[in-house]
Amino acid sequence: MASSVCVVGAGVIGLTTATLLQDALPAGSSVTLVADKFTTDTTSDGAAGIYRPGKYFQGPSEQMTKQWLEVSYKHYKKILNSEDATEAGVRAVSGYLFSNKNPEICQSPLMKDIIDEYRECTQNELDLHGQKYGIFCNTLVVECRRMQPFLMDRFKRNCGVVRKQHVNSLEELADEGCFDLVCNCSGLGANVLANDRNVTPIRGQVFKVRAPWIKNFYYYENETYIIPGMDLITLGGTRQFDNDNLEVSTWDASGIWQSCVQVMPSLKDAEVVRQWVGLRPYRPSVRVEKELMDFGGGKTLKVVHNYGHGGYGVMSAPGSSMYAVSLICDFLQHHQYHRAKL
Ligand SMILES: Cc1cc2nc3c(=O)[nH]c(=O)nc-3n(C[C@H](O)[C@H](O)[C@H](O)COP(=O)(O)OP(=O)(O)OC[C@H]3O[C@@H](n4cnc5c(N)ncnc54)[C@H](O)[C@@H]3O)c2cc1C
Ligand SMILES: *[C@@H]1O[C@H](CO)[C@@H](O)[C@H](O)[C@H]1NC(C)=O
Ligand SMILES: *[C@@H]1O[C@H](CO)[C@@H](O)[C@H](O)[C@H]1NC(C)=O
To answer: Can you cite an annotated GO cellular component (predicted)?
Structure first.
């Protein structure tokens, strides 16, 4: 049966969920996207977008985490091999994960068996970069400055409705009475919206520079990284827990610049296009689950949450959103079953 679903949040998670929902819902259904910030105003916009799950990336269970990561890689790989790759901002990238302290640090067990190439560095490679331990791998970058408009375009072409609005509470949406279900993809906004104090900002500051001669990515144990996107290279970074300052710090900037130029001296000639700060919506484990919200007086609202992706929301968006969509379809049917019985 046709349904009407509202997705709150237009970051990479909300947009991915909304477009996948359009494909999954029966004909005649409608999807409305509600958000107070779009495209360049979202956290997703400035993310480097590299597919490199950190050790602490966690879905609801270990098995589901693995599944999300596999599904996400396949999804992006399919776009990479299609004619949409450039417009969608998906490219292949090879590069290095390095450590001077400990061989464990540069390992990435979560992507080892998923990506196309993953091997220990040769002694030559290590000597060249002055590092003790390292992994070379071939992975993907998804640039949200392209991916978000690409998804928005698809969403609108499939008759999606877009509304710019700040949502003060989910009850507001329940009061409208026109949605069968709301999907909560509000990122850090869930802190307030979902009253979820497990969601904490991890502040990240970066440079976006033009340096077309740099082809590989480089990732060091101390949060220094160089990640090529479609046109620009992201230089990072910081990882400041429970810090919600969105101002660019000159202190952080000089630290990032020094470290990056130290590992890659040619960067001193790079043109700085912009500096940016984003707040990663961290949660010990990503929350994708159903909830029947009860506002009292017989007023309820079906909600499926999809937030708390921390520093890995771009790379895990397809997997986590496909799972959210399956919960949504299930929840909607459940509803109709009860109605039919009444
Ligand atoms: C420096 C940095 C580098 C990063 N690098 C990577 C990387 O290499 N790879 C990777 O996978 N990830 C990376 N990330 C993480 C990634 O950016 C996030 O995980 C991802 O953007 C989260 O997406 P989201 O859609 O949940 O949140 P957002 O993009 O923040 O979107 C949230 C949406 O919800 C809306 N919203 C919230 N509250 C309300 C409300 N009350 N009413 C209406 N609308 C509301 C907002 O307007 C917005 O549209 C990085 C992050 C930073 C800061
Ligand atoms: C998101 O979920 C949280 C936690 O339940 C809730 O407080 C908040 O209102 C929700 N926000 C939206 C926009 O759905
Ligand atoms: C980070 O690591 C790189 C490579 O080992 C090094 O050159 C750089 O100085 C380090 N930066 C900081 C701030 O420790």
So the answer is: cytoplasm
Ligand showing the shortest atom-to-Cα distance for residue 288:
2
Contact 134, 96 (CB under 8 A): yes
Pairwise CA distance, residues 312 & 54, whole Å = 8
Q: Ligand 3: does its nearest atom lie under 6 Å from the Cβ of 222?
A: yes
Ligand 3 geometric centre to CA of 281 (Å): 26
Contact 222, 264 (CB under 8 A): no
Q: For 127-183, how does the pLDDT look when each residue is reduced to its tens digit (9 = 90+)?
A: 999 999 999 999 999 999 999 999 999 999 999 999 999 999 889 999 998 999 999
What digits encode the pLDDT tens for the residues 237-257?
999 999 999 999 999 999 999
Ligand 3 pocket member 259 (CB < 6 A): yes
Using an 8 Å Cβ cutoff, are 221 and 99 in contact? yes
- Ordered domains of the chain (ranges, CATH): 4-334 (3.40.50.720)
- pLDDT for position 188: 86
- Assess whether the C-beta atom of 21 lies below 6 angstroms from ligand 1: no
| Closest ligand by atom to 208 CA | 1
Ligand 2 within 6 A of CB of 31: no
Query: Is the shortest distance between the CB of 21 and ligand 2 below 6 Å?
Result: no
pLDDT along the chain (342 residues), means of 10: 96 98 96 96 97 93 96 98 98 97 93 95 97 97 98 98 94 92 90 75 97 97 96 96 95 98 97 97 95 92 95 98 97 62 36
For residues 252 and 239, what is the distance between their CA atoms, to the nearest angstrom?
A: 11
Is residue 62 packed enough to be buried (19+ CB in 10 Å), middle (13-18) or exposed (0-12)? Answer: exposed
Measured from the Cα of 255, ligand 3's closest atom is 13
Distance 258 CA to ligand 1 centre (A): 27
Q: What is the pLDDT of residue 243?
A: 92
CB neighbour burial string for 234-245, b if at least 16 within 10 angstroms, e if fewer: bbbbbebeebee
- The answer to whether 266 touches 212, Cβ cutoff 8 Å, is no
